Amino acid sequence: MALTLRSLTAKPIVLLAALLLVAIVCAGLLAPCRYDAQDRDAISAGVSRGHLLGTDDLGRDRFSRLLFGLRTSLLAASAAAALTIILGAAIGTAASLAPPLLTGAVLGMSDLVLSLPWFFLLVILRAALPLSAPPAESMVLTFVALGLIGWPIPARLVCDFLVSQRSSRAVRYAVACGMDEPRAFRSVALGGVFSILLAQFLVFVPAYVVAEANLGILGLGITEPMPSMGGMLRSLVASSSRSFLDWMPIYVMVFLLSAGQLGSMWSKRWNAIACRSFSS
Amino acid sequence: MKAAFDFARWTLRSVVILSAAILASALLAGSSPGTGVDERELDARLSSGSIQSIRADHLRERSPLFMVRAVLRDAIHGSLGTSSLYPVKISQLLKARAALSARYLAGGLLLAWAFAAALIFLEQSISTRLSFFPRLAAIVLLMVPSAALAAALGLLTAGAPYFCTAAVVFARVYTVSSEIARKGAATRHSFYALANGMRLRQRLFFSVLPEATPELLALLGLSVNIAIGALIAVEAVCDKPGLGRLAIEAAMGRDTRVVIVLTAIICALTQLANSHRQFWIKRRQWL
Predict the structure, then answer these.
(1) Exposure b/e, B46-84, CB count within 10 A at least 16 = b
(2) How buried is residue B153: exposed, middle or buried, by Cβ count under 10 Å (0-12/13-18/19+)?
């Protein structure tokens, strides 16, 4: 834990992103108003003490909506990514244990999903579901659609890994040492599968947040008044006048989603500079 | 003989995937709420028998097999049927839009690959430290929704669809190809060539590039897939009458036939774009 904290403080970008993440999760405590509360005296108002990021064209506080929107998008994207991972792991494991004909059928099905552009498939699937559903229902539909189409990649990875582990050196060694084969396979394979799935989960969460934002901008995302990244960015396309504040969700989203990678890039860069200056 | 067998196998596999994609899209489009709703049912002059007959017709048309058969029958006659959203033949609808989308697709891909190749060339022939800012840009671009990027670029330039598609493809292509080039440059024979007096630029063309060609070809096929996905959002936001915008309008307007035809076209295009890598990699393995 101490090491983690130290590494966090060593990377200011990651620390800032972590603080922002805590603020988003605690949106209900930190937001000055409810996300759907309308101030009719302050429509499209600028930045003030009462409204830190101003208000939108319905008089709703942008700051509160941003916090709640990020919370909705991040939590729902995490749930969708978990759904994808569970589906992928289950299908991949079943395919690796099934007879070759069935494995071929499963891999063929994944080929079918992967043969279409991901966003095209998402648009077709989302549009096939009810479009004018209540906000909570539309959120579930959007993220379930997202969660359902991502399974082929983790399924293929898990299937390939499990098949390759069947006759791996580690399993053979464990069997030679007296462990029975299924147990040896389970203990060797499970650790590997877990790390594959964790990496995939971390890839899918930002991908789903971005996908929801794309769907929302096109009018296929979460319905109003529930705030989400896509819903908030829709004003960029819908209204002709765009201010600096309209783009705020993009800045925060990009910063939050790329903070980890930016932090590690930055620290590598500074380490390299420090090494060079030290050696000279 | 082996090449002919490989080609036949690939063709069969592509036909099966294409048929399954068409059937799945017909199933999805046919089962979506609002499909088959006919405003004639509100006409008070129609008897209950007539309304039942209209409903029965729509019910029959919603069957995926019926839809696929009808589309195939019309395809043989060269018209692909009539769109329910626009009162024109689908072939006319596609002809007017395909050229524009093809231009955006080719332009975006060309821009992205040219820019990525130029940056990698500079990195490999001058210094790998030059990769810092392009890598930073690629990370940021990966996290920007393509629709928001299109909205931003649409304010600045009329060529927004080209630039936006290029930016989306560049973020993926640069990250992967830069890594491939770096891996290729770190191989033992590459160091050996440098030690024997080969220049950095020569090493890139005679050692790194030939080694990385199969991977780059696979990436090229994948980038077509990425560009098509990006074009859907970009055309819709930039209000350009291409196939991407048609896909969204057809999906939202429950135009089943257009959805099926577009799925078939896009699936065939991505299969074709990814076909070369199989033959290439197999040929290299055989050699």
Answers:
(1) eeeeeeeebeeeeeeebebeebbebbeebeeeeebbbbe
(2) buried
Question: Who among B20, B28, B33 is closest to A125 (CB)?
Answer: B28
Question: Residue A43: left if φ>0, alpha if ψ -120 to 50, beta else—which one?
Answer: beta
Which residues, 6+ apart, have CB-to-CB distance to A156 below 8 Å?
Answer: A92, A107, A110
For the record, the structure tokens of B188 come out as: 């033992």
Per-residue burial over A57-95, b if 16 or more Cβ lie within 10 Å, else e, is eebbbbbbbbbbbbbbbbebbbbbbebbbebbbebbbeb
Please indicate whether, in this complex, the C-beta atoms of B152 and A220 are within 8 angstroms of each other.
no
pLDDT digits over A186-245, tens only?
888 887 898 899 999 999 999 999 999 999 998 888 888 889 988 888 877 776 666 777
Q: Which among B24, B28, B148 is the nearest to A250, CB-wise?
A: B148
- DSSP code at position A180: -
Reported residue count of chain A is 280
**CA nearest A118 in B: which residue?**
B229
Taken in order of first residue, the domains within chain A and their CATH numbers are 73-261 (1.10.3720.10)
Angle at A207 between CA A206 and CA A208, to 5 degrees: 90
Work out the minimum CA distance from B45 to partner chain A, whole angstroms. Answer: 30
**Taking Cα atoms as reference points, which of A236, A212, A210 lies closest to residue A222?**
A212
Residue B229 located in a structural domain? yes
What is chain B's length? Answer: 287
Q: Which domain holds residue B250?
A: 81-286
pLDDT digits (tens, 9 = 90+) for A118-143: 888 888 888 888 888 889 999 999 99
User: Across the strands, what pairs with A61?
Assistant: A55
Q: Which residue has the tokens 């890139």?
A: B204
The encoded tokens of residue A102 equal 């069935």
Whether B201 is in a domain gets the answer yes
How large is the ipTM? 0.84
Note which residues in 151-170 of chain B have CB less than 8 A from chain A: 151-152, 155
Identify the band that residue B274 occupies on the pLDDT scale cut at 50, 70 and 90.
confident
Whichever domain contains B206, its CATH number is 1.10.3720.10
Number of domains in chain B: 1
> pTM (2 decimals)?
0.86
Report how far residue A16's alpha carbon sits from residue A262's, in angstroms, rounded to the nearest whole number.
12
B278: pLDDT strictly greater than 70: no
Q: Which residues, at least 6 apart from B71, have a Cβ–Cβ distance to it below 8 Å?
A: B22, B26, B80, B81, B257, B260, B261
∠ CA A84-A89-A90, nearest 5°, is 100
Residue A133 neighbours by CB under 8 Å, 6+ apart: A141, A223
Tokens standing for B73? 């029958």
Residue B21 falls within a domain, yes or no? Answer: no
